[in-house]
Design a protein that fits this description.
Blueprint (H helix, E strand, L loop, with lengths): L53
């Protein structure tokens, strides 16, 4: 069961970017997390969308 956003120990963010430079081509999106020996890194991706116009 997921926890409500207000109980998450870290900040939530909303990111967006323009893919207009790639119009008419095939684009692959990759999400990567990086961690080190001091801090475990975890992330969740939700409500991802690619829109036109």
């Amino acid at each position: 069961m997921s926890r409500p956003a207000e109980s998450c120990p870290v900040a939530l963010s909303h990111e967006s970017l323009s893919l207009s430079a790639y119009a008419g081509t095939t684009v692959s999106l990759k999400f990567t997390g990086v961690e080190d020996s001091w801090l475990q890194t975890s992330f969740v991706i939700d409500d991802t969308a690619v829109t036109t116009g």
